[in-house]
Amino acid sequence: MRALFTVFSAAIAAVLMMVQPATAQQSVKIGAYYFPPYATNTVEGMGGMVADLVLAMNDVQDDYVFEIVPTSATDRYADLEAGKFYMLAFENIAWGWQDMPVDASEVFMGGSEVYVAASGVEGGQAFFDNVAEHKIAAVYGFHYGFADFNGDPAYLQTSYSVEQPLNPCTSLYYVLDGRIDVAVVPEIYLEMFLQNYAQYQGRFLVGDTPDQTYEHSFVVSRDHGPAVEELNDIIAKLRDNGDLDRLMEPYLF
Question: Which of 42, 63, 130, 187 has its CA 20 to 30 A from that of 13?
Fold first, then answer.
């Protein structure tokens, strides 16, 4: 009887091993802060491209389950150090990460920030020749080329004549209201704004030379989460299957 029970137990164990996954997927938290259209706030949580990107990343591999953790532009450094998450998407190593123990993946998406003034400003494109001499709208906690990517709000406040709204939409309304001279906004966001608010078509002058050209990558802690090489493999899969191009489609006009 004991031998029969042993055989039966072994059979049950073998069946359980067959139905269980060989290895459990590792949960990986990705920080995201309001940065439209790359990351937006919705009733369900963070939306925009970052939400679509996380879904695509989970679909193309079985080792990790990526999930979004909200943060803010100014808190993201301390939150990563505190372990609230160990990586971010749509980042750039030049945006305050240079002295932190992080690595950057390869670039997976581009874009730019542009200068925007009222359409009737004197001098046309020459108005943007000395942007730092104008009153500027620069979103709080973001990094800008005109300030050598020093995103410290106190530094911007003391070194330049700036308003620091919480989103690029407010920056554009400041231009329309005459509150500031130049707004710095993502080019893709400006296109979305004009698509949604056609009454403002023709009301802006956009600088020919961008404030910065985006090189979006993942920034990941060296001590936790996937290695950069693994992230680069995921990027390659998303590029090969067309998911990266599809992420952009809803935001192109």
Answer: 63
The architecture CATH gives domain 111-213: 3-Layer(aba) Sandwich (3.40)
pLDDT tens-place string over residues 150-181: 999 999 999 999 999 999 999 999 999 999 99
Q: Which contiguous run of DSSP H or E holds residue 56?
A: helix 49-59
Q: Kindly list the domain boundaries of the chain, sorted by start residue.
A: 23-109+214-251, 111-213
Round to whole Å and give the CA distance between 167 and 145. 18
DSSP 8-state secondary structure symbol assigned to residue 45: E
Count of C-beta atoms within a 10 Å radius of residue 157: 13
Structure tokens at 132: 């730092």
Which pLDDT value is given to residue 106? 96
Distance in angstroms (rounded) separating the CA atoms of residues 85 and 47: 17
**Residue 204's pLDDT band (boundaries 50, 70, 90)?**
very high
Residue 151 tokens read as 């995103």
pLDDT of residue 32: 96
Contact 204, 21 (CB under 8 A): no
What's the distance, CA 31 to chain centroid? 9
Q: What is the residue type of 115?
A: Y
Cα 122–Cα 124–Cα 130 angle in degrees, nearest 5: 85
- pTM here? 0.85
Q: Which residues of 177-214 are buried (b: 16+ CB within 10 A; e: fewer)?
A: eeebbbbbbbbbbbebbbeeeeeeeeebbebeebbbeb
Q: Which pair of tokens denotes residue 209? A: 């030379």
